[in-house]
Amino acid sequence: MSTKEKSLNFIEQIIEEDLKNGLSQDKLRFRFPPEPNGYLHIGHASSICLNFGLGLDYQAPVNLRFDDTNPAKEEQEYVDAIKKDVQWLGYEWAEECYASDYFQQLYDWTIELIKKGKAYVDSQSSEEMAKQKGTPTQPGVDSPYRNRSVEENLDLFERMKNGEFEEGTHILRAKIDMTSTNMLMRDPIMYRILHKHHHRTGDKWCIYPMYDWAHGESDYMEQISHSFCTLEFLPHRELYDWFLDQIIDTTLVRPKQREFARRNLSHTVVSKRKLLQLVQEGHVNGWDDPRMSTISGMRRRGYTPVAIRNFADTIGIAKRDNLIDVSLLEFCVREDLNKTTSRVMAVLDPVKLVITNYPEGKEEWLEAENNPEEEVMTYRKVPFSKELYIEREDFLEEANSKFFRLTLGKEVRLKNAYIIKGESVVKDADGNITEIHATYDEDSRSGSGTEASQRKVKGTIHWVSIPHAIAAEVRIYDRLFSHENPDGNKDINFKEFLNPNSLEIITGYVEPSLKSAVDGDRFQFQRLGYFCVDRDTTAEKLVFNKTVGLRDTWAKLENKE
């Protein structure tokens, strides 16, 4: 890293400084430590990219460690989802670890702390504890159980482990300083009683370590050199170090906790608790709903790993919390999909176009390029016939000179096909246009080399041949929240800002080349946006999710407001 010509972020500067001060490069080891109590979201993606990116830059191992210390909220489903997300983003972990791997060692160390008079069993209620803990400006007072004998603490702690007590009757606390200005140092809880089945250890344990006790010690056992956390853990650093001081072997690497700012995303929430609420209350259709800020939701919507990694790299690492506009993420998605997706034709708001002078029963298979961004151009065949679907908005019966699509008396090119001229319309009893009649110039076929084919017209529109069209369910997604920062006002419930129009389901028509498309395939529907095949697709029914438009329409709307 130090030989690279690049500016370093403050995290990289910390590592470089440690290397200069004698830390051997082969001692570098990082970790990503999710709690398996929900699906990962875009905020976790930044942390994944940070830690695994450092691993790649420094050729250092990165562990995936599950902080599974609360069986009341954790499930194997979440473990499996997290592993899938990390792999999908393109990263491989060195070791798959669990805090539960260390339960026995943590317990053994705790016994030693009790014997040294540095931990005790407290039998107060949670309300009593809260009162005696004080406030940020007022010191706490000692628990009446703080000076229990070592023998009594050992006996009670053993019985807690053996399941003799109900939840909430006892806890184990570290004996530090009830007058500390850092309230986390005022005899923090190390263990609580939980009679819950653990997804890995079963019913072996009735006591479970708190995050602050398990976190640093897990880092130490794995010999993690740098433990990077989000900014809310800054006050925890003092406690992280105090716990390490109690058990450290100076011949081993001492982990260092450092903090970076959380990156919040506009028009959504990045709290697992709130995302779970949206799922449980039915505001969305599961954790992988394409409107969600979860990695699985973005994957289902059609976002790419490259786009998310580029987004994480673009926003970088900062020391202050920040609200990132979702349009930046959408830009990264659009930029990647532009390079990688085939262009196809689909009509989402169809109106029938009849080419009156095209021979009845005739069909042609015309050549269409797949992606102009490809180094070596590839092509496919699309069918053309007398009756087509075009987008309703691509026709105006009467139009001014700035309208370059189809209108009566003017010419427009059908993409990859012919130049046509609007002639007349058919309307229903309510005056709605049901058919557009046009004539075509049979010498004007694209790519034919004729003089007529090279004639310039101002507009080009897309189309789908009606006899060959495949009906598809198309899910049009909008921002999940109408407010850019739904979580920003603590006096207003974030759900007040849910966008009632965040999902519209329509029937569209696509060209027949898409008949074989499968879950996860991505396409650019020409002139409409990028779309992805949804997992609900079957052999009988195609389902597409709109990933992102061709341009940022929200920016225009917000500028008008």
From TrEMBL:
Keyword Signal in annotation: no
Ranges of residues in domain Glutamyl/glutaminyl-tRNA synthetase class Ib catalytic: 27-338
Domain tRNA synthetases class I (E and Q) anti-codon binding residues, every copy: 460-534
Region Disordered, annotated ranges: 126-145
Location relative to the cell: Cytoplasm
Binding site residues for L-glutamine: 67, 211
Domain of life: Bacteria
Keywords recorded for this protein, A-Z: Aminoacyl-tRNA synthetase, ATP-binding, Cytoplasm, Ligase, Nucleotide-binding, Protein biosynthesis
Primary subcellular site in the record, as a coarse category: cytoplasm
Binding site for ATP: 35-37, 230, 270-272
SUPFAM superfamilies on file: Nucleotidylyl transferase, Ribosomal protein L25-like
Reaction equations catalysed: tRNA(Gln) + L-glutamine + ATP = L-glutaminyl-tRNA(Gln) + AMP + diphosphate
InterPro entries: aa-tRNA-synth_I_CS, Gln-tRNA-synth, Gln/Glu-tRNA_Ligase, Gln_tRNA_ligase_bac, Glu/Gln-tRNA-synth, Glu/Gln-tRNA-synth_Ib_cat-dom, Glu/Gln-tRNA-synth_Ib_codon-bd, Rbsml_bL25/Gln-tRNA_synth_N
EC identifiers of the protein: 6.1.1.18
Residue positions of motif 'HIGH' region: 34-44
Start and end residues of each Glutamyl/glutaminyl-tRNA synthetase class Ib anti-codon binding domain: 342-441
GO molecular function: ligase activity
UniProt keyword annotation of Protein biosynthesis present: yes
Family listed: Belongs to the class-I aminoacyl-tRNA synthetase family.
Assembly and binders: Monomer.
Protein's name according to its UniProt entry: Glutamine--tRNA ligase
Classification lineage: Bacteria, Pseudomonadati, Bacteroidota, Flavobacteriia, Flavobacteriales
Gene: glnS
